[in-house]
Amino acid sequence: MVNVSEKIESIYRDVISRNPGENEFHQAVQEVLESLSQVLVKYPEYADQKIIERICEPERQIIFRVPWTDDKGEIHINRGFRVEFNSALGPYKGGLRFHPSVYLGIIKFLGFEQIFKNALTGLPIGGGKGGSDFDPKGRSDAEIMRFCQSFMTELYRHIGEYTDVPAGDIGVGGREIGYLFGQYKRITNRYESGMLTGKGLAYGGSQVRTEATGYGTVFFVDEMLKAHKDSFEGKNVLVSGSGNVAIYAIEKVHELGGKVIACSDSNGVIVDEKGINLQLVQQLKEIERRRIKDYTQYEKSARFIEKGNIWDVPCHIALPSATQNEISGKDAATLVKNGCIAVGEGANMPTTPKGIKVFQDAKILYGPGKAANAGGVATSALEMQQNASRDSWTFEYTEERLRQIMINIHRDCYETAEEFGEPGNYVMGANVAGFKRVANAMLSMGLI
Ligand code: NDP
Fold it and tell me: Where along the chain do its domains lie?
């Protein structure tokens, strides 16, 4: 019999050689594979049927040209991506990211993580992800609209409510989703609400979708704390970023009695010891689309640290909610040294492998993104449910559904980690619980 660790090692080597240069994708695969040894021992059929090898290969990858004109009439060419990774549990589901750092390796890491995250929600959604290397910063509304229209002019033929259902991610919020939906409707002549989520409330969106990822992350951390007879009450919290996830994480932390004392954007960090003024952040970032540095013009108690490192600020709880690999091994060590007791990832893969090891060795509570930030996609699936039944639920009802989903995800991760002999290891719990659901569906469907 082949040794399980050797088998996993050889699968990982294959992934690297088949996908050269895609470092973020390699990192995401490695993290999942490291959790699977015990699973292959207990369920040899997964190895016999090459389930891991199949899951690591996307079902379909689409790369396309996105030409558009700026306000001066100059032509720009960007690259669009959609990676349809796995549809064993339902239509491909996952956001679109518009950021200059986007390339195939980023979309594949996000799509790969999405498979297990979506499985953890318990809802019928497969995994996918897309985006473009387009930089929306500083672009006018008209430029954003033209870009979105050009992007959808190719993407529309690949998506649909039973095929692939995109949503937002970095650089794609309510405005972009509106332009994308409008162009899809225009090209197809179909008012197909369920083909895109994160829509405005006026045209088929769901209550709580905007808030869902941030709220869900805080609900997840709250569950981790409760499992240790603790709570957010009286805790100082860091939330990196100041975008969609960060804003609603801040709101929920404040509701649960914690105090967010710092947030950030790619230019620097705002520290406000009396508690971040959320209304001001929303005004600056959601409405006026300004930089977080401007916060200090209105709140004299705050200071701005240009190019600062938010993880240097002492805290009890850290919620990384900006981007991948934002917490290095050194940052993790600083957090632990400063008394951080819990980390919940609002962003996708924000902690490097070295950082994860530091958190795990220190035995602090560490909720990985695929579990902690699954509330966003879960509420997207609730939006699809409402669209399918031409219904719309109240804010309170939808938030309660989200809260229950996060409680269930926490319980699944917690219990799975115990079952496989690593109590408290939410990384292994999330990876294994998500993997088993997808693997079992794939086994039932034959060789797909
Ligand atoms: P937004 O575009 O709304 O906000 C992103 C925030 O992170 C901004 O403040 C941005 O600052 C900052 N940021 C982005 N890239 C960098 C970088 N390279 N260095 C420093 N700061 C950076 O995105 P979201 O809030 O939607 O997404 C944040 C994270 O959450 C991502 O990892 C995303 O994949 C994840 N996520 C999002 C979900 C959602 O529903 N939106 C669902 C699940 C996960 P600046 O403006 O200066 O770029």
Answer: 2-56, 60-190, 212-363
